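@channel sequence for tomorrow's demo:
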Amino acid sequence: MVVLGCDKAGSEWLPELSAVLNEMGIENEILFDGTADGCDYTDAAFLVAETVASGKAEKGILVCGTGIGMSIAANKVRGIRASVCSDCYSAAMTVVHNNSNILCLGARVMGIELAKKIVENYFSASFEAGGRHERRVNAIIAKEREQLQ
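structure tokens (generated this afternoon):
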């Protein structure tokens, strides 16, 4: 299950990104569509991140103007590794090397067609478990736990 959320800047994208996931056979749900008056990107980021961190969803997609605010907010939730991606290679590598669990996109810095390709690359990639990549992700997890004590 993949959960999606956005602020106003990304509200037009979510149905199209959901359709890409559907075409890939990936179950998904739009949790926060960014259309409510007075909503902030943090509302979407925390809801999606907490849903992923709780295990109710495996991964998430967040969209704001640049993707930066969403990634900063989502990464405040324990267990989240949110990555802003604006190219297909980085989208795949953030999964392969970093086991990213939330993809953040910027609706004001790219077009929807590129965003769709990024989503395809992100969700087609698999974490390279074992070896140096797993060791590094485990170090990130350990640091996060240490900070919370």
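heads up for whoever presents: The helical segments are 14-23, 41-53, 68-74, 88-96, 112-124, 131-147.
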